[in-house]
Specification:
alpha/beta; Aspartate Aminotransferase, domain 2; 13 helices
Length: 395
């Protein structure tokens, strides 16, 4: 590295020095070259995007939709997204309440970046998808963690209220993510109602990431926006519900006056999502109302199978309630920590799983398994994990 580059590096944002790249993606990339590896690391559906959605994209290309769409999103997609969410989750959005984003990740960045000032605090229940934490810090906010591991990974009203009282007006927002990545736990109606009752007492934003809302096992998903429409910045999209992760379409929904301000950060960050992807997402919302149900049924079978297998091997694990993850506690007879276990399992028995610590307080001594893979792959993965335990521990 030249002296000039070294000097320029020293002039970059100082707060970025403490932000590390995604540990989960780094490990996934590291093990990807292992021959025959079965990767249960990323939340990547193994289903293909439904044909009617792909055909809509082809029609979009043939219609020469290759120019700039509106920055806020095409009118057709914003209307379709609002109608989908209203019909599914008893909400009352209009197109003016919707911004189309480049995936749910951009939606999270826009939501957090638009509401915090430097020094503000954001309450983040953990374990949680790690992305919220560096985004909050890069925007100058201080994350306040509430470890929910002792409460079945559900944020209780009592702990939320105590934290809000402790930090007062410095709390600008509360992040919710359910069904949860990484725990596979979701909030039932009574949980959501109780949390909403506490939040209604405070002038805080509720940034609710509900990208897995179509993937619940048992009771249907209940959005916190049903109870707190004025406070909620709702994040959703088509990545998980319609197997469209690579299309990169998310949506933010909020009251119109709040949308007007959220839109500024979106517009000056990315301008707009691609036209063809928006046309495909419009088709997903309009004519793929129940596309996620077939996938949901298969995910439930896979989750139950992996749950039974991991439990029988001695891991502490809760039965999945949604999404496509198991969060497994290492048995107390292990003589290796989670990072060593993940490394050894990948290199010796060719199964990759994610270590739990990056998911925040409550994640240590755990691993996350994504069962968004075929049942054939999962059968092989569970057999390999069992073989690893037999070889190392004589189980």
């Amino acid at each position: 590295m030249s002296d000039k580059v070294q000097r320029l590096l020293g002039r970059m944002r100082t707060d970025l020095r403490n932000v590390k790249p995604s540990a989960i993606r780094a490990f996934d990339q590291e093990v990807s070259d292992i021959p025959g590896i079965i990767k249960l690391t990323l939340g990547e559906p193994d289903f293909s995007t439904p044909e009617h959605i792909k055909n809509a994209a082809i029609r979009s290309i043939r219609a020469d939709h290759s120019h700039y769409p509106q920055s806020i999103g095409t009118p057709g997609l914003r209307k379709a997204a609002a109608n989908f969410l209203n019909q599914k989750y008893n909400l009352n959005y209009q197109p003016d309440n919707v911004i189309v984003t480049v995936g749910a990740t951009e939606a999270i960045s826009v939501a957090i970046g638009s509401v915090v000032n430097k020094g503000d605090r954001i309450i983040i229940p953990t374990p949680i998808w790690p992305m919220y934490i560096p985004i909050a810090r890069m925007q100058g906010a201080e994350p306040i963690f509430i470890d929910t591991s002792a409460d079945n990974y559900v944020l209780t009203p009592a702990r939320l209220k105590k934290t809000l009282q402790e930090y007062g007006d410095s709390v600008k927002a509360v992040v919710l993510n359910f069904p949860s990545n990484p725990t596979g736990i979701t909030y039932r109606r009574e949980d959501t109602r109780a949390i909403a009752a506490v939040l209604a007492e405070y002038d805080v934003f509720v940034i609710s990431d509900e990208i897995y809302s179509e993937l619940t096992y048992g009771e249907p998903h209940v959005s916190v926006a049903e109870y707190l429409p004025e406070q909620t910045i709702l994040i959703n999209g088509v990545s998980k519900s319609h197997a469209m992760t690579g299309w990169r379409i998310g949506v933010i929904c909020a009251p119109k006056l709040i949308v007007d301000n959220l839109f500024k950060l979106h517009q000056f960050s990315v301008t707009t999502a691609t036209y063809v992807a928006q046309d495909a997402a419009q088709e997903a919302f309009e004519n793929g109302l129940n596309d996620g149900q077939k996938m949901r049924q298969e995910y439930e079978k896979r989750g139950n199978y992996c749950y039974d297998q991991m439990k029988s091997m001695g891991f502490g694990v809760d039965k999945p309630q949604g999404a496509f993850y198991l969060f497994c506690e290492l048995p107390d007879w292990f003589d290796e920590d989670e990072a060593s276990f993940c490394h050894n399992l990948a290199y010796r028995n060719k199964v990759a799983v994610a270590a739990g610590s990056p998911f925040g307080p409550g994640g240590a001594n755990h691993i996350r398994i994504s069962y968004a893979s075929s049942m054939t792959q999962l059968h092989s993965a569970m057999e390999r994990i069992r073989n690893y335990l037999n070889d190392r521990y004589g189980n």
